[in-house]
Amino acid sequence: MIPHSETTAHTKIPAAGKSVDLSRRGFLAVAGGAGLGLMVGLKVDPAAAQGAAGGVVQFNPFVKVAPDGAITVVVKHLDMGQGPTTGLATLIAEEMDADWSQMRTEFAPADGNLYANLAFKAQGTGGSTAMANSWEQYRTAGATARAVLVKAAADKWQVAQGEITVDKGVLTHPSGKRGTYGEFAEAASKIPAPTGMAQETPYKDVAKFKLIGKEGLHRIDNDPKTDGTAIYTQDVKLPGMLVAAVAHPPRFGGKVKSFDDAEAKKVKGVERVVQIPSGVVVLAKSTWAAFKGRDALKVEWDFSAAENRGSDELLAMAKDAVSKPGVATATNTGDAEGALKGAAKVIEADYAFPYLAHAPMEPLNCVVDLKKDRAHLIYAAQFQAIDQPTVAALTGLKPEQVTIETVWAGGSFGRRAVPSADYVTEAVMIAKAIDGAVPIKLVWTREDDTKAGYYRPFYAHKVRAAIGADGMPVAWHHRVAGQSIFSGTALEAMAVKDGVDETSVEGASNLAYAVPNLKVELTTLKVGVPVLWWRSVGHTHTAHVVETMIDELAFAAGKDPVEYRLALLKDKPRHTAALKLAAEKSGWTAGAKLEKGKGRGVSVHESFNTMVAQVVDVSIQKDGSIKVDRVVAAVDCGVVINPDVVRAQIEGGVGFGLGAALRNAITLKDGEVEQANFDTYEPLRIEDMPKVEVYTVKSEQKPSGVGEPGVPPLAPALANAIFSATGERVRDLPLGDRKFKSV
Amino acid sequence: MIKLNINGEARSVDVDADTPLLWVIRDDIGLTGTKFGCGQALCGACTVHMDGQAVRSCQTMAGDVGDAKIVTIEGLVGADASKEGKAVQAAWRALDVVQCGYCQSGQMMSAAALLTENKKPTDDDIDAAMSGNVCRCATYHRVRAAIHDAAKRLEA
Lengths: 743, 156
Description:
The complex is a heterodimer.
Chain A: H1 24-33, E1 42-43, E2 57-60, E3 63-65, E4 71-75, H2 84-96, E5 103-107, H3 112-115, H4 130-157, E6 165-167, E7 170-172, E8 178-180, H5 181-188, H6 197-200, E9 242-247, E10 255-260, H7 262-266, E11 270-276, E12 279-284, H8 287-295, E13 298-302, H9 311-322, E14 328-333, H10 336-341, E15 345-353, E16 365-371, E17 374-379, H11 384-395, E18 402-406, H12 422-433, E19 440-443, H13 446-451, E20 459-467, E21 473-482, H14 492-495, E22 496-497, E23 500-501, H15 502-505, E24 517-524, H16 539-557, H17 561-568, H18 573-586, E25 598-607, E26 610-620, E27 626-636, H19 643-663, E28 668-669, E29 672-673, E30 691-696, H20 714-726
Helix pairs in contact in A: 2-4, 4-5, 11-12, 16-20
Chain B: E1 2-6, E2 9-13, H1 21-29, E3 47-50, E4 53-56, E5 69-71, H2 73-77, H3 83-94, H4 104-117, H5 123-130, H6 140-155
Parallel strand pairs in B: 1-5
Antiparallel strand pairs in B: 1-2, 3-4, 3-5
């Protein structure tokens, strides 16, 4: 969700990959800056080890071993369902030859020195990078912890280290000696590890994996998430804490003119009413009282600086923008305009995509305990590198006085990582408004969450593409217009180059198909509605345009859509492999005639270094609506760390993409969001969910992400399936109430 | 004071009668496995059992509960778990249904209620019974499979 970035200023991390200095000396050198300076193995204070028994030894930023043998993996990424706790624990367990049942996890604190995302060089989760950036780092951490533990055993047993084997967490020596990591943790903590240990104890060769890539490793968060004990922000309760509900201006950029809190204060449980820059806050002893109090407020708003336009006007502006040359050029290869003039056949098409809300199941929330010399925040932190310094700036504290405790996230899809730290800022402003008198928990209702902005931007596209006498594409002229996700944020300089926000055009500007003349233009629109990355970012719209247009070209050329694509992907072996696998597993047959009312469509798209091809089967219902029967997906994500987590993410991506394609849109009327709850912004429901089959391409390449890449191919494969059944193209999303007729 | 029977325990809470049961369970009783998702009975995250029936606790007022026995996720799978509760939890774990997990208490409550009434639900039965439970991670595919799996476990 957060694209790869070069740097953000305030963090400094060890170098990536095998050269990561995970020796304790190296760890302590950086840890010392965080006030954790110890000479050798870091003995963790039992209280700080979150309930672990005394004597827990931390071997490096990522691995702790308890006397009972439990290995705790410190997870630097937010788990919002995409499974990094399982994945990162798998990497450590693999290198330590541990038993899966002895693995535990905890979320890392905010500490950019120790826990940066190596893809961003800053602490945060997104861009489907969790496993990719940790692949070498966590395995190194596991391998080095294993090395000192084995050495401790060798010393005690008076044998050579090389004679000790470890299997399922049990150390054995041919002499019959046996032991567990827990028994040697204390002794291992006293072994000074040389720097450069990583080079001396390289992690395993792919061929020796016992856990990575293997079936049967269950999600490590299964238990707490199936017995009600998993703690989310919403579940946090601190002594004396008040719950805060905020009346926000109903238009973006609106301000409080005046308010009357007399009725609100009469609500039982309401303690205080305060004004902050983003609205009027009711603080109460319970959530329900806070909501009731908030609803009883009378607020006059000032809309003089607000965005007062409606969706029709905004879309017209975008449509107008793509009817003219773009302000910036993202790609220009050959002479697309010239080639179009002399081409045998030109196809022109317009596309429109709405604002989309992330709508995580858990509406946004944040707990803040503000004191004179520190601020402690508890929430599902996704972008600590932004949030921590933002809170420091708001409170006048130093970043290291701002501590962040991360808990499970009830979904995010990008929404909890915000360059403006919007909801974290709001929570801190509330705490400040009451001078930190008590801890506060900001709670948004579903309606607050839906209306709060930070949407996937709306876009218009126009494509003019031409095919030659042989039916193959000769030119592709593509215009995109929409808001920039990065412009106006602290990350603008890093992501916007020559007037092009890469996230507006990614997936189109790097067109995978071999088209000799390609031009992609961008016009960035300024609208006062905050926008954000939304699971798969720019690919959410570019993949739809590219993959439906290539289908139109195949049809115009009289060629099979799979064969046509393959012919244009000759120098793209990974796309080719994924597409061929999806075609094979779905039983795709070139030229096959489907029965009336049935349709089948295909797409293939790369995002976040992962290739996903999907074949979608649809039925046209009697009332002309669409039912998706089956989706076959093939994925090349490099080495598969946990096959079932990969399948789950692609299944989820299919569902997430399908819900949006079928019926999701955020619209504005006179600047006010027209949707509020799940009746007006209705997510996919179980009866809409097709059968999904997921297959992976065998690969020994470094792993790439799977959280987002399942989303982009769905809508275009669906649109192409609808075309095959009806002859009608789907160029605007969502489908909404549109009815189709079988041909 | 309102008297409630929650997971077999008699509880007495000082709330207005129009307080949604959801907030009594979460804020007053302190059982946080039951989740707040929409507040309008549109998502099912707050599903609990009231005398064995799946109900949305966000739209069930505390004053209307009376003598009905309330069971939350903690009761469904706890020490006094019903056989349906145990089967659903085992199936959910075996099939790795959860992703973010936030909706899953509600999914499991609805699934257990379905299996109490219908020992061998079809896909259509499952879709009808589970339609009110939203999962933004779209784990539906596995929810369906896990309910079939739980049904098999109950048969055995």
